[in-house]
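User: Run a structure prediction on this.
Assistant: Running it now.
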Amino acid sequence: MCRTHLAPLSPLTPPPWVVRRGARTGFSLLELMVTLAIACIGLVIGVPSYQGLVERQRVTSAMHLLTAHMASARITAITYRIPTVVCPSDRAGGCRQDGDWSHGWLMFFDADGNRSPDAREDILRDENAPIHPSLRILSSSGRPQLRYLPDGRSAGSNISVRLCREDMLLGTVIVNNVGRIRSETSSGHRPCQG
């Protein structure tokens, strides 16, 4: 049997877990000031970039949701062979006529062609506004709603739905006469005009 001998601690040497009196621990005032200065510079540079990133994400998210509902309306019109409309909601089960989509939108069957839901059963979707209150969604003048025919075409002229903040254009969703949907983002340097 082999025995291991541990060297006894000298009475003058404290164990390693004991901190000696007078030993320096913590930060000096200069180290603390340099750390705070670096943190402040990082915040000054990072916060505006982060706010821009959040705004771009809101615009992209709203554009994707809007294009998904428009594509769903097209597929529904083709599948059921019934004209289907997507319009800005007046939050009472009808369509707004001013082209302001900021409060949400409706998707409904429009078998009689009057461009408004006749019964609650005709409404397929009633989407609340998924965006930040600072963003506005506006359709092109003279075209407040999108109507798909049973063959998938969009009746009438092209419709452009713009996403804006403080009268600056951030993104656009465009539907042509054939019914194809495309979206594009903008740098925010163009005015939001219809």
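The radius of gyration is 31 Å.
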